[in-house]
Design a protein that fits this description.
- This protein has helices at residues 19-24, 40-49, 60-81, 88-98, 124-139, 170-186; strands spanning 27-28, 34-35, 101-108, 111-118, 144-146, 155-157.
- By secondary structure, the protein is α+β, with helices and mostly antiparallel strands.
- The protein has a domain at 19-141: Jann2411-like fold (Orthogonal Bundle).
């Protein structure tokens, strides 16, 4: 994939997740819910943090496509959050995005080379994010997790050896949960 360095303008609390979850995490807790993709400038920031700024234009058409992909991903992880499998409705949403592109294999001097082709340039970021989600599912759908903190809406890919990670960030959500448990125990 592409080298990724977070854009310093990126306000999101969790960065660096795989592309699919990084797109999903463009919404985070707040009142109202924060949405990086609420404006075209936010889309440019996300493209930059995702390492896609040089490949994808930060225009309205791309923003519309990536919002569609985010909704499809959100439906898929809702199915997974309950410990189930991705259902037919969510799969149809993912497939609707995937229909805009394909992977073309080509021969090269060092072996096969895969090249992504999309039917319109605005679909590249959306297609790549949904394709990345399929890779994550192949590595283990049980590792795509929602943060266990009740106020957090972020998702992460659990790369821990035993698959028991619970928090998007231990330093924030994990500590809040521990502090709340301690407070309850002390003040009963």
């Amino acid at each position: 994939m592409t080298e990724r360095t977070a854009d310093p303008r990126d306000p999101r609390p969790l960065l660096g997740e795989p592309l699919a979850l990084d797109l999903l995490n463009t919404r985070w807790a707040g009142t109202p819910v924060n949405d990086l993709l609420g404006e075209p400038d936010g889309y440019a920031i996300w493209l930059s943090s995702a390492g896609l700024a040089g490949r994808c234009a930060a225009d309205g058409a791309g923003l519309t496509a990536v919002r569609e992909a985010r909704e499809a991903l959100a439906a898929a992880v809702r199915d997974l959050d309950g410990g189930g499998a991705v259902g037919p409705v969510a799969l149809a949403g993912l497939d609707a995005v995937l229909r805009h592109g394909r992977v073309r294999r080509e021969a090269s001097a060092t072996g096969a080379r895969d090249r992504v082709e999309v039917d319109a340039p605005e679909w590249l970021a959306a297609w790549l994010a949904v394709d990345d989600f399929l890779v994550l599912l192949g590595q283990g759908p049980q590792r795509v997790k929602k943060c266990a903190h009740e106020a957090c809406i972020l998702h992460f890919f659990d790369t821990s050896q035993n698959g028991r990670r619970r928090w998007c960030r231990m330093a924030v959500c994990g500590n809040r949960a521990k502090a709340a448990r301690h407070y309850e125990k002390v003040h009963q």
